[in-house]
Design a protein that fits this description.
3 domains, two-stranded antiparallel ribbon, 434 Repressor (Amino-terminal Domain), 229 residues, 64% helix
């Protein structure tokens, strides 16, 4: 499979264009670079660097900026004008959770494609340790690298956006960002358990049990006792 590394000139141009869009949206929202930095856990200097195309933002950082500026996320990579929408701003805990979710999605996509850490690392020119950091949600993935990884794995960027910020669909209903924020307030042990794909069966069983009546649960318990003894 061919590598998907971006041309250096194209990558620089991409960062500068996105930086201009970020600065425009920030100015329209009447926010300072320091205010944006405080929300992202970054310094004002780093925010200015992103706007100048010297640094690149990650998808979770762009999502937070979209909430801060009250604009759709797709504004950052389309030519559409700013269209304000109404939603709540997520916490820094939700930002960390988004990194973890994107990492889980990346690892799942890699395994389903039968690719190794080395394959992904070579495809975008980084170390295997960097890819491992991405998958563990410990390291921000610059948006261009995330797009390149998606291209290598034959996945659109929407794979990470839709299954990340929306998290999942339960009975046809989209999980809201407020619910993701509530999830981020659970204890680290509970979050770790829920984010482990190996525990999915237990979570599904618990969800089904929670919807049963007390009488049904009592019957199940009696049946288990009969089998046990």
């Amino acid at each position: 499979m061919p590598e998907v590394m971006l041309n250096t000139d194209e990558a620089v141009l991409h960062r500068k264009i996105m930086g201009v869009k970020i600065r425009h949206a920030r100015a329209k929202a009447g926010m300072s670079a320091k205010e944006v930095g405080d929300a992202l856990g970054l310094s004002a200097q780093v925010v200015n660097g992103i706007e100048l195309g010297q640094h690149e933002a990650s998808l979770p950082q762009l999502e937070v900026m979209a909430f801060l500026f009250n604009i759709p996320l797709v504004y950052f990579w389309t030519e559409d004008p700013i269209e304000e929408i109404d939603w709540n701003f997520p916490t820094l805990e939700a930002l960390a959770l988004r990194r973890r979710i994107i990492g889980v999605l990346l690892r799942r996509a890699r395994l389903e494609a039968g690719r190794s850490l080395e394959d992904l690392a070579q495809s975008i020119g980084v170390s295997t340790g960097q890819i491992a950091g991405y998958e563990l949600g410990k390291v921000d993935i610059p948006i261009q690298k995330l797009q390149a990884l998606g291209t290598y794995l034959k996945l659109p960027l929407d794979y990470f956006v839709d299954e990340g910020i929306k998290a999942d669909r339960l009975n046809g209903r989209t999980v809201t960002l407020d619910e993701i924020t509530q999830f981020s307030q659970l204890s680290p042990e509970v979050r770790e358990f829920l984010l482990n794909p190996a525990n999915l069966l237990y979570v599904n069983i618990a969800m089904r049990l929670s919807g049963m009546s007390a009488e049904t649960l009592r019957s199940l318990a009696e049946g288990l006792l009969e089998v046990t003894y």
